Amino acid sequence: MAEKVSAIVRYSLKGHTKLQRWVNALNMEEWSIERSKLVFGLDKKDLHFLDITESGDLEIKFENHSITFDKIVKMVDEANSTKTAYTSSFTLRIPQLITSQMVKLKDSFALVMEELKYSGEYGAVYPVKVNQRKDCVVPVLQSDIDYGLEAGTKAELYLIKTVIGTEKHRLIICNGAKDPEYLKTIKKFVEEGYNIAISIESLYEAQMITELLQPEQTNIVYRIKPYLTVRGHWSHSAGRDSKFGLSIHDLFDVTKLLKERGFEKCVSTVLGHVGSQITAIDDFRKFAKFMTRIFYELKKMGLKKLHRIDFGGGLPIDYTSSHPSNLMELYASALISGILDEMEDNSIKQKPPNIMIESGRGITALMSLVVIKALELRSVFPKVDEMKDEIREKYETWEEDLRNSASVSELMDSWNEFHSAYASSPKTLEMLHDKEQLIGALRAVVRKQIARLGSSTLRSDSLVERVWHPDHIVIGNFSVFNSIGDHVLVKQHFPVIPIIDLHVRPETTVRLVDITCDSDGEISQFHRKGTGEVWFTRDYRPLTMPTAEMGSGIPIGYSKNVQGSYFVIALLGAYQDVIEMNHNLLGDLPDVELRLVNGKWQVKWTKSAQPMDEILRDVGYDDIQVDEDPYMSNDED
Known about the structure:
Radius of gyration: 29 Å
CATH superfamily of the domain at 139-145 and 154-171 and 178-359: Alanine racemase
Structural class: alpha/beta
CATH architecture of the domain at 139-145 and 154-171 and 178-359: Alpha-Beta Barrel
Number of helices: 20
């Protein structure tokens, strides 16, 4: 180690205090598992169920028990590798994480209600659109006897009726656009004794409801457009231009109609939804204030039985491990404080409204992960250990110029000069190879210089990011489009973590690409945590930044160990199953369920990969009979 430090010191100015800090930061003895946890956001917040063993293996921990992904993979392989439609990658389902999220949310509201002396009641429904899978919906019902469900279509309503069975006391909220058939189905289920509340989103829907149903069998929810702006990707769900809910003028027209037809006592709830994944928690406070104003004004308009505000969804999942650990408590506090603000501002002495929450993402996101086998590691640049003499001379000339740069700005100017000097296209493949070898070698010099010159004020820009861009591509046995569609559709970030070598300072970073023939089939985004200073890989790519920001490149411990190992993509339980795409005819991965029962882990193969003949039938080819899965073979013979 002393020799390495001496070499670094000789490499720059004597007595340079910034260099000394850099040498200390790069000391391999300083690296720890705690640093790796911080880099990947593990063991806290919404990745609290993931941890690292002393030997650097990624593990799942639950109720003081743990199991490594390496062990899960081996158990899956040993028990199922001979099955039809087996593939080495799979989706891991952990239903018990749904229960823990539900309990956490309920406890958060209970705590805040007690602290703020709020006398209204808390209730919750799960919107099945977030994930309609049986292994997701059933655990919700098993976890809380009072939990309700929300349907947005006729099909979802039939699903809900089936899973509820005889538990007809559970509240079912019917949202979505409604045609006469949808309403007739609702009427039929109401007559069978199911507890259904029907949302009204237009005057036309109100007319149909009052013509088809009787007041005594009708429970109405006013779904309104919240006239405000919040921060988040789906914030367009609020405001006058939202596709959902009653406009302000509709409120008056619908209320007049209900009074005329004797339905004003049927309105129990006012519902507003400001969008999914609202990352600015403070915005919920103004949302609650707005909804409370509407609530009490509607009561003044004659809707005397109105007793509940349904705040819809919007509770975010902390995909970047950037939010406070008590995010659910802050969410509950923002909503309840907003209600109390409005009541105090208008001297309202009535009983406060009951609260309904329709959190879906916040309940289910943790329960699914994709475990991806790394089939191959490819290098973008040629090896530099065998340079021709003429190429080495060019390298040494430019290396000296780059090393003499006194600032990152000057360094980037020199780097641009190099590219300008070699802008012309090589005439032969051999010349192109030599040029690529030179570029790859000098990129390493630039990265090292950025690390030497960088400080707590270092920021990335497009040019610097290109130098930091990974030099290696990992081919993963999966499809981005089928497993993590939101990454393509809305640029949603998902955490990606290797399952081994997490105890060492990462050697480099990689891009994880799938086996589709599509350039969008890649997930290389990595959230660099803010640590006040930059932590670098061993080849001088940033792992963290002075302040948190999104970058590119998934850190790995040792490149030599990547091929044949696995990566995990976490927090996929919300929406990813319901928006999956069979791009390149790559269907569903196998499903594996993990449960902790009486202190012992149970790993159960619940479904094989979607076979090719089934996928081909979906696109009209009924005469092709092949029951294999379409992913890369696990057979190495």
